[in-house]
Amino acid sequence: MRNQFSERIFFNAKKNKNIYIVAADISPAGSMEIFRKKYPNRFINVGVAEQSMIGVCAGLAMRKKRAFAYTIATFALYRPFEMIRDDICYQNLPVTIVGMGAGTIYSNLGGTHMTQEDISIAKSMPNMSVIAPADPIELNFAVDYCSNISKGPVYLRIGKSGEKNFSNHSREKWKFGKIRKIINGKNICFISYGPIIKKVFECRDLLKKEKIYPSIYNCHTLKPLDKIRLNTIFDEYKKIVILEDHSEINGLAQDVKSYAFESKYKGKILSFSLKDKFYHTFEKQDHMLDLHGISVKKIVNKILM
Amino acid sequence: MEYRLGYKKQVCKKIMTNYNKKLSLERCKKYRKRILEISKNVSALHFGGSFSCTEIMEVIYNYFLKSKIEKDCFILSKGHSSIIQYVILEEKGILKKKQLDMYCKKGGFLGVHPDRGNPGINASTGSLGHGLGMVAGEAIAERSSKNVIYSVLSDGELQEGSTWEAAILIGAMKIKNIVIVIDNNNLQSLEETSKSHPNLYPIKKKFQNFGWSSVDCNGHNSEEIYKKIKYRDKSKPLALIAKTIKGYPVSYMMNEPIWHYRSPDKKDYIKAMKEIEEK
Questions:
Q1: Predicted ipTM?
Q2: What pLDDT, on the 0 to 100 scale, is given for residue B81?
Q3: Which of residues 56-115 of A touch B (CB under 8 A)?
Q4: Distance between alpha carbon B245 and the CA centroid of its chain, in Å?
């Protein structure tokens, strides 16, 4: 995804001369190096200094530039939190904070490199939108939106590398703020976002053997939440399964459940989110997710129960 | 930028370009008196820090921020001194008297810290250590236009790591179109800056080591401030270290931490007015 981000931003920067990248000492991936060579005045490496990364982005946006702050998610959002809140959100500036390798992706680097609370934190700030594309194709649409359309701050939560495309199954177009149906099924539906959607497809393959054909929805925009589409989902399905690579606190599952309560939804909601807990291990992402109770087997078993 | 109150329609008064000592002194008196006048109606007023940077603000606004575009090139990083900025903006016709009379009152929109979107206010500050990063971003965006970005920082703000992140970056990127003035009044909320952080001094050496041009000056001498900015080394960003006194020139306010925030009673008010006039 980071390569795709670099390519797309480079592509957009050719047309839009106002696009700036402000990176905090992140190793060059894909076209980022080309961007840097081609547009040296529009690529700023602030070094390991995330607070000034956000300050510089705010200053650029005050002068009508479209700035992208780019580094690993934990450093992009947590370290300069107050700068994001005051300089970007309070002043409502069109800055995109790109959090790369979000969720448990960097699990083998340990807890200091993971972001299990990023969406919760980003969502809490007024004016901030939150987008988490599922795959490289969706990332293109999200980057286009942030490059040319967004009017305020966006937290763009992306994966790292090797993500496959899933959203090409969808007949619906990507649109900011809209839940998108990827696969059509009946009775049961999955709602997910981000690269963990891969596990949803694996679950579906196993469920097919049991003659269960769930729909798959992708909620790429976490804020604002598409309540209109949720209404139709509540009408259509008896069981909703939510899978996310994010804390159970203030993630998608909690949002959907609270809206379901308001809407008096009669069906059942199963959710698989990260526990409110730190695990001091340095294992692969799948192992880390398993510790949090997320694996294809566990999800399928719970659905079949 | 969209302003909440038809700023575009208002015309700024013509400003002199050459230094005029008499006018500068008069203006500083006027600004301080106006602040005192406003203080009669509100309690939340940062006197000490506003009086210490009155001359600095007077010089920047009257000699360097001439056009409307230039007025947008200023960030008050020490946002708690916003009252001095409002008083100047009022004098320039950017803020109206009735707007400033509503300072910190129900229905008004001006308060203790500057808020972006209000007439003449470029950035929302108040939390210390945010200004210089934004200054860097604005200056990068304005590199081709050669507009200079001005900012006033407090010395307490130099304890914020974020200030130095931006200072290193500005020096490393050789961003020349930046002028910052540090209001070195040596008094923070709790104690003297030189007492709590003695190794911060000499401040100018720190900036010089990071690739800035940095000089000291008397922060209550408008002429000196003007000259140091006007005849600066234009191949580097400038950090002017202005030695000031908190609460200057009111005798009972000077170097008294309590006047960081307090408003005077009637007796204090009369005394302060007298002392400002006599200065």
A1: 0.93
A2: 95
A3: 56-65, 67, 82-83, 86-87, 90-91
A4: 14
